[in-house]
Specification:
With about 55 residues, the chain is mainly α. It contains 2 helices and no strands.
């Protein structure tokens, strides 16, 4: 959700001519998505280790 919000902000800034800023915001959105994905995977692995399906 936060990643999508950042992407939307980047699109709006790009529409106003801020391509350089948009690139930085897109990188931030990717980082948020990757970081959250890694944490969710660790949580899933921990649940499996506990024997919870």
């Amino acid at each position: 959700m936060i990643s999508d919000l950042l992407t939307d902000i980047g699109v709006r800034i790009e529409d106003q001519g801020g391509e350089d800023i948009t690139e930085i915001i897109d990188e931030a959105a990717g980082y948020v998505q990757d970081s959250a994905g890694q944490r969710l995977e660790r949580a899933r692995a921990a649940l499996i280790a506990l024997g919870t399906p």
